[in-house]
Amino acid sequence: MSQRLRVAVEAPQHSGLSAPLDYLSEQPIAPGSLVRVPLGRRELAGIVWPGPSEEGAAALDEAQLRPVLAVLDALPPLSKRWCELVEFAASYYQRSIGEVALSVLPPQLRELSPEQLQARLKKLDKKPKKLQAEASPEPAPRPEPPTLSPDQALVLARLDELLLTPGDTAPPPVLLYGVTGSGKTEVYLRAAEHALSQGRQVLVLVPEINLTPQLEARFAERFAGTPMVSLHSALTPAQRLGNWLQAHLGRARLVLGTRLAVFASLPELGLIAVDEEHDPSYKQQDGARYSARDLAVYRARLEKVPVILGSATPSLESWQHANTGRYLRLALPGRIGGGALPRVRLFDMNTLPRRKGVSTALSPPLLAALRQRLEAGEQSLVFLNRRGYAPVLHCAECGWKSECPHCSAYRVFHKADRTLRCHHCGFSQRVPHECPDCGNQDVAPLGRGTEQLEEQLAAALPGARVARIDADTTRLKGTLESQLQAVHEGEVDILVGTQMVTKGHDFRRITLVAAINPDSALFSSDFRAPERLFALLMQAAGRAGRDAEQAARSEMWVQTWHPEHALYRALLQHDFEAFARSQLAERESAGLPPYSHLALLRAEARTAEAAQAFLSAAARWAQALPEARDLMIYPPVPMSVARVANMERLQMLVESPTRGALQRLLWLWMPELHALKREHRGLQRWAVDVDPLAI
Ligand SMILES: Nc1ncnc2c1ncn2[C@@H]1O[C@H](COP(=O)(O)OP(=O)(O)OP(=O)(O)O)[C@@H](O)[C@H]1O
Ligand SMILES: [Zn+2]
């Protein structure tokens, strides 16, 4: 007799199919198994889902159900807990289970037939050696782990208690609050060692791919011989599948990855560490807009394993959880070796004599300081959060500016390949020789990016070896690693870069860090902008003086027009706690997160009117519900870059005093939004972003 099964498939979002679908099978198939099923005229991958059929599906006659086509039974099923994690993520971020479940699997896995999978697994069997070879490129002699600092020892003693508690209840999430260079990584390493020695798998999350190589090297060195894999978007599809399988089969004991790795299948998970937990890149920005940090906390509770969230500048959400006792705060208040944090110097740009229309990127005192470091044979890091040569090209005759024809933004001038490039839609053209409007020969760059800064530094400091690291210089695979290597090996005197180089790296020779123009974030309409800026500057400062010998001489320069700003005052003292206190007080009085819960409804259309009409209709519908009583639905507004690739983008903010009330409204709202989309023909796309990061 044939059996009825639920199967999660990746149905397109607009189809409104949100629950797993029912299929028939001759034999029982274990929940969590990967299968091939028909959907419409296509055949796709699906996952047999645990739990009973939905009401609608259960009402279907067996004769109306289609059969499962194949079972990929060479693969052990995904665990029940993995399915629970996916189900939670889907429900919390308002997506279908099938979409989340399938989109977090390695893309190649969704393409394979049972035979192809078997062949792939056979190949993997032949390569257990390779797994270790990858983990440690050269079998270096294993160094002795350092003696723990007293602070580290205290933190680990507390962690040990948690790790040792038998797994009936989930231990509280740990917020590891440690200043830059305080040895947080060593804490992850020791905690990992503990979990590994108990036969458990360990998951370590990092915010960006560019941070994985160094951390990977540190783990590989410490755990030589322990199979380790990485999971991030820069892997080839074949690597990603291979690594995912190693984790799923329990062969890889350590998994290091970016946000997508939070969904790795880890049958023996024993510990999760989230490094730089405050980092915005933990939030996925399309599809299911999940926060990997928040899901890591959820997953740890589900699996009753410890989770460590580490940061020198925790997110205010996590900080508040620690204040209320939901998270356990463990602190590393000092740098390793007792080194001081760099002295912060706010340079007041108002004191420079102003020439008409010209602002200097590099103040003479900063240049002098850079020269001094150069002469002492020390490295400096100069950062500016804007790549390219200049953000705008401008004609002084007629006022023409290098606007993007498709976006409400300027195209950026890239000197190296002489292009004008839009950083929003990618539209790129050769730089015009003359003004396209009036023919004037004299079109000039306005403002500056890293490319120009590199040029100016090289000109101002002859003989200095200046190198630049940003998204433009690291496009090719392997270039970032080799560039960072050159910095580590002292082949660079001055490193110019975007925020890419300001976080996480353990630079040993940098003694001066300078932020060229960080002011703009002070006046952003996004309430999280100050929090992000403060974290960025603290992180950047943390790159200086990491060698205790040099710490006392190290400096962090900030060139600013607003040296009296409270944010900079807190930075002067490296006082995250004071900064967090004042921000939290502001948030509380304004009713902003973490004191309220937000969702954004976004809409895109060819015209702003069409997007507006959809959002307004959605708002009217929701406001009529009793469930919306305590919620605030704000009027739709254009996004900060209103038009991208000829699409007008608007958003509408929903604010709720509780998570529960927000979730209840969203649940009622979703089917209506699907229906409204069908009525509003002009609308291209809509999406809900729960706990949005950028407002
Ligand atoms: N107990 C120890 N004894 C000696 N050196 C240590 C010890 N713990 C860590 N270190 C070294 O101190 C340096 C800083 O440590 P680590 O990179 O772990 O700091 P961190 O807190 O993660 O810093 P950041 O937040 O800035 O990334 C590293 O080079 C590390 O090898
Ligand atoms: Zn554009």
Automatic annotation (TrEMBL):
Residues 125-150 are annotated as: Disordered. GO terms for cellular component: primosome complex. GO terms for molecular function: 3'-5' DNA helicase activity; ATP binding; ATP hydrolysis activity; DNA binding; zinc ion binding. Residues 138-148 have a biased composition (Pro residues). Belongs to the helicase family. PriA subfamily. The gene is priA. This is Replication restart protein PriA. The keyword Zinc applies. It comes from Roseateles asaccharophilus. The keyword S-adenosyl-L-methionine does not apply.
